[in-house]
């Protein structure tokens, strides 16, 4: 069982101001590598429950499309969610592997979350990479609490809980949020859409921490619906799902050939 060690104070940002919306929100969410590099994959796609959604609200979209780009830039954010029919083009979506996506959004002053769309970006004069980089960079200013835990194998386990924006989005800048290089990546889990559990991979015993990750996530979220019930390997902008086989309370972890190659190159202990 992981033991609580300490909390880190949150960081804060200052949203831009817009005029009052003239229509219904396009999307309303829950409050939505080592750096913010743009992941592979084209813009457009789908996201699942827990994230923002495209839909009616042309007046609001038109208002945002006509807003000054310097003001919009301050309010761009990313949301990490599951794939599915929840989003559709022209929403700006990037795959983070087969099971997770990042969605560009605009955070309004009243807390509404609006899915950014390609026509909006075109009106702002911003390309897809510019939207990604600005959205990821703005996550630096979001409130989140970071707790550190002891875990099996001498590992350090970290929990991020969002305060104003879902902490799961910090996945896209995990190394920066941890203040550490992640050459071998990290194990991550999402016990709900506002909580991110992470264990940097430092040695070959790190997979032993999977059971503690799930137990800690359950304690922190009191059994709320997880963003995903699986554990993932986050490495170079891709979240690969891990195959976890349970033997009593112990977890045996298998991953892709790429995961095996990287694990073979880290110290045994």
Automatic annotation (TrEMBL):
Skewed-composition ranges (Gly residues): 28-58
Low complexity bias (residue ranges): 9-27
**Annotated region Disordered: where?**
1-59
Q: Which domain of life, per UniProt?
A: Bacteria
UniProt protein name:
Uncharacterized protein
């Amino acid at each position: 069982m992981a033991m609580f060690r300490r909390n880190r104070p949150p960081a804060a940002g200052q949203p831009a101001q817009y005029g009052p919306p003239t229509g219904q929100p396009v999307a309303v969410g829950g409050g939505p590598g080592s750096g913010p590099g743009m992941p592979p994959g084209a813009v457009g796609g789908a996201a699942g429950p827990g994230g923002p959604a495209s839909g009616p609200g042309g007046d609001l979209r038109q208002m945002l499309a006509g807003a000054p780009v310097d003001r919009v830039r301050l309010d761009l954010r990313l949301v990490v969610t599951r794939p599915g029919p929840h989003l559709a083009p022209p929403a700006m979506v990037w795959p983070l592997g087969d099971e997770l996506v990042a969605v560009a959004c605009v955070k309004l002053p009243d807390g509404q979350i609006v899915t950014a769309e390609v026509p909006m970006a075109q009106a702002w004069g911003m390309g897809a990479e510019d939207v990604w980089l600005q959205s990821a960079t703005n996550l630096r200013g979001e409130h989140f609490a970071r707790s550190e835990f002891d875990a099996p194998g001498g590992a350090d386990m970290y929990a991020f809980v969002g305060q104003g924006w879902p902490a799961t989005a910090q996945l896209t800048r995990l190394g920066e949020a941890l203040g550490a290089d992640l050459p071998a990546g990290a194990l991550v889990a999402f016990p709900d859409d506002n909580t991110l559990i992470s264990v940097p991979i430092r040695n070959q015993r790190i997979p032993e921490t999977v059971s503690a990750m799930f137990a800690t996530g359950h304690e922190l979220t009191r059994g709320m619906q997880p963003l995903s019930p699986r554990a993932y390997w986050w490495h170079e902008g891709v979240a690969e799902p891990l195959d976890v086989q349970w033997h009593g309370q112990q977890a045996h972890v298998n991953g892709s050939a790429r995961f095996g190659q990287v694990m073979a190159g880290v110290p045994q202990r």
